[in-house]
Amino acid sequence: MWSSRIAFIAAATGSAVGLGNIWRFPYITSENGGGAFVLIYLACIALVGLPIMFAEIVIGRRGRMSPINSIRELTTASGASHKWAIIGVMGIVAGFMILSFYSVVAGWTLHYAFHYFQELIGTGASITDPGATFNSLLGNVGELTFWHGLFMVMTMGVVGLGVEKGLERAVSVLMPVLLILLLILLGYGMNTGYFHEAVGFLFKPDWSQVSGSMFVTALGQAFFTLSLGMCAIMTYGAYLPSDVNIPRVGVTVAGADTFVAIVAGLAIFPIIIANNIDPGSGGAGLIFTSLPLAFAEMPFGIFYGMIFFILLSVAAWTSSISLMEPATAYIVEATNLSRKVAALLVAGLGWLLGLASVFSFNLWSEVKIAGKSPMDAIDYVATQIMLPVGGLLIALFAGWVLSSRITREELGEKMPAWAYEAWLWLTRVVTPLLILVVLGGILNLF
C-alpha cells in the first residue's frame, strides 16, 4: 500500500511523466506542425484520458490485485464474464512491449549524459557533428546493448524492492529532481530571446495542417504519456488507500503530466529556434541531433547538456518502473516466485525483446515489417493499436459492465452527483466513440 495520497500522486505522475513528455511530445509536436496538434492532444487528455484514468484507478483499488486478477474479481462481483480479463492480459503485454523499446531509447539518454559528464571533467571529446555522433551510436551494437541492459537493471532494482521500499522511495526522490532540472532548462529557454516564438509554435494553431493521422497520433500520445491502456495506473491504483479521493488524484496526475509536457516544449523549442534549427525536422532523434548543436553554442553548454540528459534519464526511469510493475505483480500472484525473481524474469525477457529495437538501427536495418523497422513496428502495434483498444475495453467495462454500486462507492461519494454522471456519460458514450473513430482512422492508414 502507498503510505499516503501524496505517495500515489508522485508514483502515478512518475509513471505518466517520462520520455513521452520530454522526448516524444516535442518531436511529435514538431512533426505535426505545432499548435493545432497541441490543442487536439489536450482535447484527447480531457475527453478520453481523464475518464479512463478514473476507471483504471477504480478497477485497481476495488480489485486490490494485479490487473488480470482484479478484473476477474470484479466480473464475479458484477455477474459478468471472466473473459473481460483480456483487458489485463492486453495491458500487461502492451506495457511489456513498450518497456522493451523504451529501455533502448532510455539507454541513449544514459549514453549522452555520460558523454557530457566526460566532456565536463575533461576526459571526453566534444560533440562537433551531432548527426554523425548519433548515427555512430545507433550503429554500435555493443554500445546500444550495454546501455539498454544497464537501464533495464536500474528498473529491475527498484521494482524488485516492492511498493514502499522500491517504488515509493524512488519516486519520492526522482520526481523533485526531475522538476528542478526541468525548471533550470526552462529558465534558460526563457532567456534565449526566442521564447515568444516557441510559445507561438506550440499554441498558435495552423488548422490547414490538420489530418486524420494527426488525431490518431494525438490519441496515441495521450495514452502513451498518461500510461493508460497498459494497466500501469490500474496496478498503482491497487495500492491506493480506500480513503483517497480518486477524482482529485486523477486530475492532479493528468494535470502534472500535461504541465511537464508543455514545459518541456517551452524549454526545448526556444533553444532549437535560437540556433536556426527547423522545429519540424529531426524526428525521433530531434533532441539527440539538434539540441547538442545548441548546447555547443550555449554558455555552460556542456553542463546544461549533462543536466538535460540526466533529466531525460530520470523521467525514463520513473516511467519504466510502472511498465515493469504490472507483469511483475501478476507473476508474483500466479506463481511461487518472489518479487525479486519475478522482476528479474520480466527484465530479462524485456531486454531480449529490446534487442529487436537495438538491431533495427544496424544488423536489421534492412528488415521491414509492414514498411516499418522492427522498433517502429513494436511501437506502432503497442501504442497506436493495443493502448487505444485496451482503453476502449476499460471504458466499456467500467461504464457498462462494472456494477454501478461499485463505481458510486469508489467515485460517487467523493465527487458531486453531476460530476459522477458526467464521468459515467463520458465513459459509456463519448470516450468509446472517440476511440472507435480514431481506430477507424488507423485502419484506413493500411
Task: Please describe what this structure looks like.
By secondary structure, this protein is mainly α. The chain has one domain: Amino acid/polyamine transporter I. It is built from 19 helices and no strands. It has helices at residues 5-16, 19-31, 35-63, 67-78, 86-120, 130-139, 141-160, 163-190, 195-203, 212-226, 232-237, 246-274, 286-289, 291-297, 301-334, 339-359, 374-401, 404-410, 417-444. The longest helix is centred in the first third of the chain and has 35 residues, at 86-120. The chain is globular, with a radius of gyration of 21 Å.
Give the percentage of residues in beta strands: under 5%
Averaged pLDDT:
86
> Looking at CATH, which topology would you report?
Amino acid/polyamine transporter I
Q: What is the helix tally?
A: 19
Radius of gyration: 21 Å
The parts where pLDDT drops under 50 for at least 5 residues are: none
| Global outline | globular
Which oligomeric form is depicted? single chain
* CATH level-two architecture: Up-down Bundle
Q: Can you tell me the CATH class?
A: Mainly Alpha
Q: SS-based structural class?
A: mainly alpha
Give the % helix.
Answer: over 70%
Number-wise, the strands total 0
Largest sheet: none
Order of helices and strands: HHHHHHHHHHHHHHHHHHH
Distance between the termini: 44 Å
How many structural domains can be distinguished in the coordinates? 1
